[in-house]
Amino acid sequence: MVSTVGDPGSRHGCLVLQPNATLSWQGTVVVFIVFNAPSLAVAITCGLLGCWYVLPVSLCVIAGVGLGLRVGYRRSQQREVVSIEDESVAVEKGHHHPESRFEFQRGWTQIILEPPARSRRLSRLLLRSEGREIELGEFLDESERRDLAHRLSLLLGTARGVREAGA
Description:
29% strand; PH-domain like; 3 helices; five-stranded antiparallel sheet; alpha+beta; four-stranded mixed sheet; single chain; 2 domains
């Protein structure tokens, strides 16, 4: 999902990129409980009936489900913020706060949309300047990625638009 902050007609702007998160942290906890309560109930019942070896296996399954939900939730909280100023383009990546920051000179920044390769299904959107490049919106779908490339092109005021790699 791509959100624009600021005046759309301005030379300055801020784009906030984030995955489509369908579940809050509270929702994730509810899913964890709903999926694991029956398993834990069966494991405890089996343990009380003398089949104690079911408990460790069940606890491993519960831990695996919990770890999977935690990883999924963390990925859904990923954020990328692209800030465009007079002379610079800054990209901040992180979860709840910026964990990395990249800055490019606005005049030299290119927007490149690489077509899908055999090893991946989706295109890649890159910002490139002075020999450095960074991928934007790895979590976006194809239409969102193309829309982002168009928005960036408008904000940067690049007459050449988005360059299709390999074209």
